[in-house]
Amino acid sequence: MVYLLLVAVGMISTGFNWVSGGREGAERLFAFATNPFMGLLMGTMATALVQSSSTVTSVIVGLVAGGLPVSTAIPMVMGANIGTTITNTIVSLGHIRDKQEFKRAFSAATIHDFFNLLAVLLFLPLEMATGFLEKISDELSLLFVGSGSMDTGGLNFIKPATKFAVKGVKGLLESIPEPFGGILMILLGIGAIFVSILYMGKLLRKVMVGRAKGILHAAIGRGPIAGIASGAVVTVFVQSSSTTTSLAVPLVGSGLFGLREIYPFTLGANIGTTITALLAATAATGDAHLALEIAMVHLMYNTLGVLFIYGIPFLRQLPLMGAEMLAGQAAERKSVAFAYVVTVFFLLPGMCMWITSI
After folding, report:
1. Residue 144 is inside which H or E element, if any?
2. What pLDDT digit, counting tens, does each position of 58-100 carry?
3. pLDDT surpasses 90 at 121
4. Dist CA 186 CA 108 (whole Å)
C-alpha cells in the first residue's frame, strides 16, 4: 500500500506536467486559484468530500511537483486542515440521544475545528503579506535535495523504485489524444492515493488502534507536552488525524476525560498527519525540491500553529470557548449541529467559491 501511494503521487505529478506542458502551463491552469481564499476553499471542500486530509495533501504534493506554484498550493494545504475535522464532528453525532453526553462529545469534536479555523485566520494573512512559510520551507527543503532535482538530492532511493511503474502507466496512456491521456493519468493517480490511504489506514487501525488507545490513556492528564506528543505518535501509527481525533470524542462524551484534557491530544494529530505528505514528496516526479517544499509547508504550518496558539494563553482559550459555546447551543437544538456541518464544510465554501469566480 505504501508503494502504491508513492507510485500514485508520481503519476499525478507526471500527468499534471503532461497536461499543462510545464510550469507556465500549470500556472495558467490554476490562475483561478491564485486568489488565496479560492485555494483555501478548494482545500476545505476537497477534504470534506473525501474525508481525508492525507489524500488531499498527497495530491497537492504531486501537483506542485508537476508545476502548480507553491504559493497557490499553500492555502489549499491550510484548507485541508479545516476539511479534515468533519469526520470527528460526524462521529460526535452518535451521542445525540443523550443531551449532556452529546454536549461533551460535540465540544470535543469541534475544538479541532475552531483551532484550525483560528490557525488560518492568523497565518494566512501573515503568509500573504510576508511569504514566511514558503521561505522557511524552501530553505529546509534545500537541506535535503539541494538546489537541483531529485537526481542530485539525497532522496533518490524512492524515485527509482517508482519510476518504472509510472513510466509504464504513461506508456499505456500515450496513445490517447492529448490532453485526455494526462487527465486520465491524474485521475488514476488520485484514485490510487485514495485506495492506498484507505486500505493502509484500515490495516494500521486493526493493528494499532488498541495500542493507540493505550497511549492516549497513558498520556492524558500528564500535561500538554505529553498530550501533544501522544497525539502526534498515534496519528503517525494510524496514518489519519481523523481517526486520532475521533478516538477522543467518545471518551469525552462518556465523561471519562474532560475537554481541556483532550485538547492537546487533538493538536498533536495536526503534527502527526504531516508524515503522509513528507512520504509522498520522496516519490514525486518532476521538481523534487518543490514537492518537498510544500510538504515542509504542511509540517511547519501545523507545528507553528500548535506552538503559537497553544503557547499564548489568550489564544489557547479561544478554541475552548468556541467549542463549549457551540456545543451548548447544539445540545439544546439538535438542528444547530446539522446546520453547522452543512454550512461550514459545504455551503459556505461553495458560496464563497461561486462569488469569487464571479
Report:
1. helix 132-145
2. 888 888 887 788 988 999 999 999 988 887 888 888 888 888 9
3. yes
4. 37
The answer to whether the beta carbons of residues 63 and 73 sit under 8 Å apart is yes
If DSSP codes are grouped into helix, strand and coil, which group holds residue 331? Answer: helix
Assigned C-alpha cell, 179: 490532453
DSSP 146: T
CB atoms within 10 A of CB 195: 15
Cα atoms in the 13 Å half-sphere on the side-chain side of 115: 33
Q: Quote the domain boundaries for residue 170.
A: 2-357
Residue 265: name the closest of 245, 249, 250, 246 by CA.
245
| Residue 307 contacts residue 87 (beta carbons within 8 Å) | no
Dist. CA 358–CA 356, nearest whole Å: 5
Of residues 347, 270, 344, 337, the one with CA closest to residue 91:
337
CB contact at 8 A, 52 and 94: no
Instruction: Return the ∠ at Cα 60 (arms to 83 and 145), rounded to 5°.
Output: 135
Secondary structure class of 256 (helix, strand, coil) = coil
Contact 296, 23 (CB under 8 A): no
Q: Give me the residue label for grid cell 449541529.
A: 337
Helix (H, G, I), strand (E, B) or coil at 12: helix
* Contact indicator for 133, 301 with CB cutoff of 8 Å: yes
Q: Pick from 64, 66, 65, 76: which is nearest to 33 by CA?
A: 76
Residue corresponding to grid cell 481541556: 260
Q: Is 14 helix (H, G, I), strand (E, B) or coil?
A: helix
Longest dimension (CA), the chain: 61
- In three-state secondary structure terms, 287 is coil
The 3-state DSSP composition of the chain as helix, strand, coil percent (nearest 5) reads 85, 0, 15
- CA 144 – CA 41 distance, rounded (Å): 31
Q: Mind listing the pLDDT tens digit for each residue in 9-48?
A: 666 667 666 665 555 554 455 555 567 888 888 888 888 7
Domain count, the chain: 1
C-alpha 6/C-alpha 288 separation (Å) is 13
Average pLDDT value for the chain: 79
| Nearest C-alpha neighbor of 193 from the set 59, 47, 48 | 59
